[in-house]
Amino acid sequence: MPWYLHLALRQLFPTGRWFPFFTVISTLGVGLGVTLLVIVMGVMGGFSYEIRHMIVDTEGEVQVKARGWISDYPDVVKRVESVPGVAAATPYAVDHVMIKFGDKAEYPMLRGIDLDSVERVIPLDKYVRAGSLADLDDDSIILSQQLAAGLGAGVGDTIEVYSPLIIDKLGADEVFLPRQVRVVGILEIGHQQLDSSTVYGTLRLSQDLYGLGSTVHGLNVRLAPGVNEDDAAARINAILPKDIRAFSWQDSFSEFLWVLNLERNMIFFLLLFIVIVAAFSVMSSLLISVVRKTREIGLLGALGGKPVHVAACFCAQGLLIGVLGTAAGLAAGFTGLAFRNNVVLLITRITQREEVMRRYYQFSELPSHISGATVALIVVMTIVISTLAGLLPAWKAARLRPVEALRSE
Amino acid sequence: MNDPVLSARGLKKSFPSGDAVLEVLRGVDLDVSAGESVSIRGESGSGKSTLLNLLAGLDSPDSGTVAWDGSPDTGPGRRAAYLGMVFQSFYLVPELDALGNVLLARRILGGLDKSSRPRARELLGQVGLADRAHHLPSQLSGGERQRVALARSLMNGPRLIVADEPTGNLDERTGNGVVELLLGLCSSANAALILVTHNAAHAAKARRSLVLHAGVLGGG
To answer: Would you tell me which CATH number, out of the four given (3.30.2270.10, 3.40.50.300, 3.20.190.10, 3.40.50.450), belongs to the domain B6-219?
Structure first.
């Protein structure tokens, strides 16, 4: 091992000292920054991952949309399903409705689904918490959980659905009565927005309510595993007429995904300042060390140590603190992520806000997902910043002339 | 005739002192042959340490030359192998034990090999510290620290040892012991020695005794 690395290690871990104060405090500072980065980026990534997962689960990897309506949708479905990489496609019609139960009213989106094909694209059955998807027919609906709770409706209740067509009919002095439908299921997707504002009905029911006739608004497309969404969308577009276009889910939700990424990047940037502050503390400690060890630095020069190696000795201390702090921070961060839900549960129990948490949070549990690339970015940035923190002390040490350093008091 | 281990010619060195210039060395000539011991005495401020720094390649003269074995290369790379240094204040690395401090000289030279540790232990044995190899400097007395520094200066088998007031921080009895040890070790290693000291008795033990006065070296 080169002498400057050996000496850097010895200065960080002097012989016979189990608790080298400077090393422990500096490592803790860097480690805390990394811990926070891992936990916050993990939870942010979890939100992002869950949202992406839910979009793909409830919309398919590719959406086919027309400028207006798709009239001959069975043919379009057939053509889309013939494209290599497409596993299945299902039509949908979606728009706002008003639903009323007793004296309570809500304004959710009613999504009309094709019962014959929907399960091959959207795994709705796994989200049904009460009742059954099999009971859904043209005179019934499935309510999302928070919507049902808000209305006070349950499986077996009958509710009224008011279509936007009522307004058109009123303009023509016609009367369009609300539709009486039974609730045959309660569904929980796990996303606050979807769980508070979505109703599922048959394609026929929504076509009737929106006056679509036999047309639909679009198709949800499920791809075979491993197929690239953009490539598949391009292949589908090649066989569709110009007024019907296929979009990958990333394209369909590009603005939303951009906002998610922006939030994530901003949080990363802000939290990185914790590591930078810790690095300043490392720098300040190393600068003090250079002043304190001026004569030793002179000795190293007198013994034949080159200035660049003297600099490397102090730079290496910054690097080692960075590596140790990163390792400690990763361990603490992943432990924190593993127990995140226990911590949240404890806090909500103590504050008696479990229901509030469920109502206002996007998810019933705190999600977590951190990619290898994010971990690598945290590791590289932290180690680079810590090493840079050692540069100024290293430069000062390298500039000391042995003859002057040895004379210093 | 072989080149002297150290050859200095016309060394001049001055330092600014307020508006004036203080001429410390005014043309020093010195040759030291292999295995020779030379002592340099002088009053405080006479420039002994300045001269030693020039001879050791730690500082550059205003004019004049220093050559080791006929070569003007006195840079850090060569210094590690050619020269051993002993200081008044010992200058041991506090984080390293006695053995680590002795080995540091070899590490700086280029790294340890199989023979490094046995050699360092042997040197510690020669300075009477075989049983203190794993003691930190803070656990050693002043005399013991200086003996570790002596062992360190000999670790790379240098041709020349320069010792700047090695007994300055020691009591008389310990100081005598250290000088005896230094002379003995240099003699057995066939290393030349330049000993800067205030102590006339210590200076007299060297084969040649010089005095630095008014910036010029003269016979003692």
So the answer is: 3.40.50.300
- Which residue is closest to B90 within chain A, CA to CA? A299
Of B78, B80, B97, the CB nearest to A303: B80
Q: What's the rounded Cα separation, in Å, for the pair A205 and A203?
A: 5
Nearest to B96 among A10, A298, A401 (CB): A10
Check: CB of residue A101 under 8 Å from CB of residue A152.
yes
B126 and B189 Cβ atoms separated by less than 8 Å: no
Burial (0-12, 13-18, 19+ Cβ within 10 Å), A318: buried
Looking up tokens 């009367």 gives A175
Chain B residue nearest residue A298, CA to CA = B91
The two three-digit tokens of residue A123, written as one number: 């795994």
Strand intervals (E) in A196-335: 198-202, 216-223, 244-248
Pick from A14, A298, A299: CB nearest B95: A14
**Contact A7/B93, CB-based, under 8 Å?**
yes
In 3D space, the residue among A114, A161, A149 whose CA is nearest the CA of residue A133 turns out to be A114
Chain centroid to CA A381: 21
pLDDT tens digits for range B1-17: 456 888 999 889 888 88
Closest residue in B to A9 (Cα) is: B95
Mean pLDDT of A290-308: 87
Q: What is the pLDDT of residues A253-265, one digit of tens each?
A: 888 888 888 988 8
ipTM for this prediction: 0.85
Tell me the sheet residues that pair with A4: none
**8 Å CB contact of B94 and A15:** no
Q: How many helices (H) and strands (E) does chain B have?
A: 7, 9
Interchain pair A406, B91: CB under 8 A: yes
The stretch A131-157 carries a mean pLDDT of 90
Q: What is the pLDDT of residue B170?
A: 74
Give the pLDDT band of residue A18 (cuts 50, 70, 90): low
Beta bridge partners of B66: B8
Q: Who's near A108: CB < 8 A, 6+ residues apart?
A: A96, A97, A99, A144, A147, A196, A197, A198, A199
At a CB cut-off of 8 Å and minimum separation 6, what does A245 contact?
Answer: A64, A65, A66, A237
Residue B108 to residue A3, Cβ atoms within 8 A: yes
Residue B193 tokens read as 């020695």
Chain A residues with a Cβ under 8 Å from any Cβ in chain B: 1-3, 6-7, 10-11, 14-16, 295-296, 298-306, 309, 401-403, 406
Give Cα separations from A191 to A4, A138, A321, A363, A369 (angstroms).
55, 26, 41, 5, 16
Residue at token pair 């299945």: A88
What is the 8-class DSSP label of residue A3? H
Place of tokens 């990958």: A248
User: pLDDT category, A163, cuts 50, 70, 90?
Assistant: confident
The span from the CA of A66 to the CA of A218, in Å, is 6
Domain ranges of chain B: 6-219
